[in-house]
Amino acid sequence: MAELIKNIFPNVIANPIRYLQSIKETLLMTGWAGGFMFVFGLLLGITLTATKKGGILQNKVVFQIVDKSINFFRSIPFVILIALLLNVTKFFMGTKIGLNGAIIPLIFGSVPFFARQVESALSEVDDGLIVAAQSMGCSPLSIIFRVYLKESIAGLSRATTITLISLIGLTAMAGYVGAGGLGDYSITYGYNYNRMDIVWAAVIAIVLIVSIIQLIGTVIAKKNTH
Amino acid sequence: MIKIENISKIYVNDKQRFYAVKNVSLTINDGDIFGVIGFSGAGKSTLIRCINLLERPDSGAVFMDDINLTSLKEKQLRSIRTKIGMIFQHFNLFNSRTVLENVMFPLCYRGIKKEYVKNKAHELLELVDLKEKANAYPSTLSGGQKQRTAIARALANNPKILLCDEATSALDASSTQSVLSLLKKLNKQLNITVILITHEMRVIKEICNRVAFMENGEIIECGDVYDVFSDPRNSVTRDFLNTAGNLPYFDKSESQNKIAQIDNGQCLLQLRYIKNSAKKALVSYLSKTYNVDINIIYGNIEKIGEDILGNLTVTVSGKSVDIDSAIKCLLSNSVKVEVIKDGRVN
Lengths: 226, 346
Description:
The structure holds two protein chains of two kinds. Chain A is mainly α. Chain A has helices at 2-8, 10-14, 16-51, 60-74, 78-84, 86-93, 98-123, 127-135, 140-151, 153-171, 181-190, 196-223. Chain B is built from eleven helices and 14 strands. Chain B has a six-stranded mixed sheet, sandwiched between helices. A four-stranded antiparallel sheet of chain B has the order 2-1-4-5. In chain B, strands 12-13-11-14 form a four-stranded antiparallel sheet. In chain B, a hairpin with a 2-residue loop joins strand 1 (2-13) and strand 2 (16-28). Chain B is elongated and about 80 Å long. The A-B interface holds A 126, 128-129, 131-132, 134-139, 142, 146-147, 150-151, 153, 224, 226 and B 52, 54, 78-82, 84-86, 88, 90, 92, 94-97, 105-106, 108-109, 137-139, 153-154, 157, 163.
């Protein structure tokens, strides 16, 4: 078995630490950016839902600002976003490069997408439920937590899965600022030296990570669908 | 007591303003089962939503026991709303929560002991006869069961008033029956005032004691259910009672109709039996006592609440004097008599 792997992936086995390190970097970027993405995206998605016309906290100004900013950041390709946010990254992280340098662009790249997903998941909640909660004397905050979020756990779980997976796609480009990860690994050590086994090894790792995320998301969604 | 004072609600649609509710005033007494009926688009739903201010009227005021709800701040209004239960046409149950959790919903996070909340929810489920469904999810329930769950949920805060927004319109006949009997039971047992809107005449007949007819945002007739049904004043109300398959009033334009043809010496009468006069065997009594023949052309007898309302169109033949005495006898038995055609030669 070990012999077989050595034959198929000679260049990976020659430096396995580098491979494992890349997986770790991809997971770290996905984890950190994903965590922030979840919190900020949820907040913005809720804000959109609550402040839209006919929403429980209708507010035209807030809605327009959030709505337009999301559109703005969503329309910028990620590679350009990295360049655009250099100074913001420097301000928050103290550096423009490396793993830390990649987190801010990753957040900006994924939050708008996730916010839209959240908005769409929350809009699935029947308006009748909101009216019912209001008739019971629920406050807007309580409606957000006990009706909107509670009723759309399955939808939110699917939204998180989709966004996390696309976030992994973005991390592959983080090599541009020296953040490493599997994308960087397959380009720098595989593609550039024409070592295809390295590219394949990166593919296998990413497919595994994506499958696990998808599996978790599906299970959560299923458990919360009644 | 709920007092609605001159409320109006205006909607703007394509720059056109129209009144969903126009200058409506109503008083609903404690213990009433008050029905508002009208065709769709009459403004019933807006009216009932104005009571707990889910819709804010553009003018006018709503009072609950002398508290002017329209003047309250959001927070005070929310606490008042807990005393006004509401159920809906499409039930609006939380699908992610079990039946028990749905009923517990209004009481959770309000600083009430979990133990009490749970017991209360179980009690309510027993009241609506859904004890065995406590741990089921709403998606597994029938329409009637869903509405009964919604009723239990609406009762969690011991409200004095229950608003029903087309509560039976999405239900089949037997589920409607079970929900209506439940509402009646709650009204009797817990002394809850029920305000319901519906387009089904049956609902009004079966459980309401007072009714308001609504058209184009206005109340066109309002009163005791029996009074309005037995003697509608407004032509639209009369139409509604007719089209709703209720008591067919004799239409004068039908007087050329074959069935309405009478021979000389006969009389075509319309009899309206009010309250308990329908219980007596009047037709056969008249026939025997006054020596007249009575032929029933068509008719209908309805139960309204606990009372009977009957409507018969008959031809009477016999001696002119005897027919007169027979009519007098009917009148003295509180039957309303209308002579539609008189074929007697005077």
